[in-house]
Design a protein that fits this description.
By secondary structure, the chain is an alpha/beta fold. It has a single domain, classed as Cytidine Deaminase, domain 2 (3-Layer(aba) Sandwich). It has three helices and seven strands; from the N terminus they run E-H-E-E-H-E-H-E-E-E. Strand 6 (about 110-115) and strand 7 (about 120-125) form a beta hairpin.
Amino acid sequence: MALKVSSTVIDSLAITAEQAAPHECCGILLGHAGEISGALPADNVHPSPETHFEIDPRTLIEAHRRARAGGPAIVGYYHSHPRGPAAPSATDRAMAAGDGMAWAIIGPDAITWWRDTPTGFVPLSLGD
């Protein structure tokens, strides 16, 4: 399944991850089914932000409110692995909801895209 993501979103994810290092950045992916049109950065409120992430609940609640009011839908989440591969970690797999959301994982040299399914993460390719 191909996912549409603008170069502006990809660039903003890379910049956000670079600015957050050595901590993991995190945030919310916005758009509609099959297309990501925006990224909403969130504070990483996890007690160990160097190796884990937790999206600030206030940002998540506000994104849901905006979506209900006609704004862009929440279609996924993103976070970085400043010192690791751009692939779901054991912690990511354990914490995933299996809810079909898209995930972007930003590593030192790549951004990868995933679908969080009930049976685990499935890689996504980017389409036109």
